[in-house]
Write a structure and sequence with these properties.
The chain is mainly alpha-helical and 56 residues long. It is built from 2 helices and no strands. α1 packs parallel to α2. The chain starts with 7 loop residues before the first helix and ends with a helix.
Length: 56
């Protein structure tokens, strides 16, 4: 089994792109505003994006 050393700088750079992609996907959804959403990402930035799109 291979082991890998965690590189925080590489992770941070990759996660920036993942957050941008997630925000883009959310912004392209055709939402009415009364949907219920289960967000299991645990990412505050993605949760904030959902809150801007959903009224309640």
């Amino acid at each position: 089994m291979n082991t890998f050393e965690f590189d925080g700088k590489k992770y941070k750079m990759a996660s920036i792109h993942q957050k941008e992609w997630g925000n883009t996907l959310i912004s392209e959804l055709k939402l009415k505003g009364d949907e219920r959403i289960l967000d299991c990402t645990g990412l505050k930035t993605i949760n904030d994006c959902w809150k801007m799109r959903i009224k309640r």
